[in-house]
Design a protein that fits this description.
Blueprint (H helix, E strand, L loop, with lengths): L1 H8 L16 H9 L3 H6 L2 H12 L6 H14 L5 H38 L13 H12 L8 H8 L7 E2 L2 E2 L11 H17 L1 H14 L4 H23 L13
Antiparallel strand pairs: 1-2
Helix pairs in contact: 1-6, 2-4, 4-5, 6-7, 7-9, 8-11, 9-10, 9-11, 10-11
């Protein structure tokens, strides 16, 4: 529900290339609650927005001025709400952030610790060495795959994930739009796609560059297409690491544990 009100307030904020990776993070919340309308963001100096980003991210935003420019660009591209709706939308969004998002975020820490504890009790998993994967995605992927020995080839694992594409073909014509089969394990597909989004941000040379390459090649649904293709690339890595028991090492041969 909160995402719907974010769209109403700043419709371009959460599309394609998001200014901040976590829409409901502390820094993003300051932007969403500190400015009532897209016009206020457009009118704010870059230095002011950059200062907000720098202060509330505690230095985790590498280039505040660049991110501030993206935020202003999103504001310029957003639809303006009718004036009678500005106050109600801001009130409901602020309430959602306070009573729901922040409460759920407060519970994430203990839950993630519990998942990490359970993961340590299982046989050692090398997937956790992939930057951006973490214990939650690792536990989800490992539990849904089960015995990787069932999948002799990575193509079989991709099919089990539902990360394969149907061909649109009639006579000599073959369509460019090839939808996902979406068969197999929906939970594993969710983990793989969400993990791919995290890994692409943490591994810019290997997965980030691949994502941007596919993003540029796409003519429609650019982010979604590039992200799913990145997830398909991640399947190959996961299959290889689970079967070999090796750790992740970017840009070179992967060493045994």
């Amino acid at each position: 529900m909160a995402l719907g009100y974010v769209y109403l307030k700043l419709s371009a904020y959460n599309t394609i290339e998001r200014p901040l990776s976590d829409t409901f993070g502390v820094t993003s919340q300051q932007l969403l609650e500190g400015y009532l309308t897209p016009d206020e963001i457009c009118a704010a100096p870059i230095e002011e927005l950059a200062s907000v980003l720098k202060e509330h991210s505690r230095g985790r935003v590498a280039d505040p001025e660049k991110v501030a420019e993206v935020v202003k660009q999103a504001a310029r591209r957003s639809y303006a709400l009718p004036k009678p709706l500005v106050e109600p939308v801001n009130l409901i969004l602020s309430s959602s952030l306070t009573t729901t998002i922040r409460t759920l975020k407060a519970q994430l820490g203990p839950i993630e610790k519990a998942i990490a504890t359970e993961l340590r009790a299982t046989p050692p998993q090398t997937l956790s060495t992939i930057p951006g994967l973490g214990p939650v995605f690792t536990a989800g992927i490992v539990s849904e795959i089960g015995d990787v020995g069932r999948f002799e080839r990575e193509e079989s694992l991709a099919k089990f994930c539902g990360l394969t594409w149907r061909r649109h073909q009639s006579g000599e014509f073959e369509g460019e739009e090839r939808p996902l089969t979406k068969t197999g394990n929906a939970y594993l597909r969710y983990y793989m796609v969400e993990a791919a989004n995290s890994v692409r941000l943490s591994c810019p040379e290997e997965f980030g560059s691949y994502y941007h390459k596919k993003y540029r090649e796409a003519t429609r649904h650019k982010h979604r297409r590039a992200l799913v293709l990145t997830a398909r690339k991640l399947v190959r890595l996961v299959h290889s690491m689970l079967r070999s028991g090796r750790i992740y090492q970017p840009g070179g041969p992967r060493k045994a544990r």
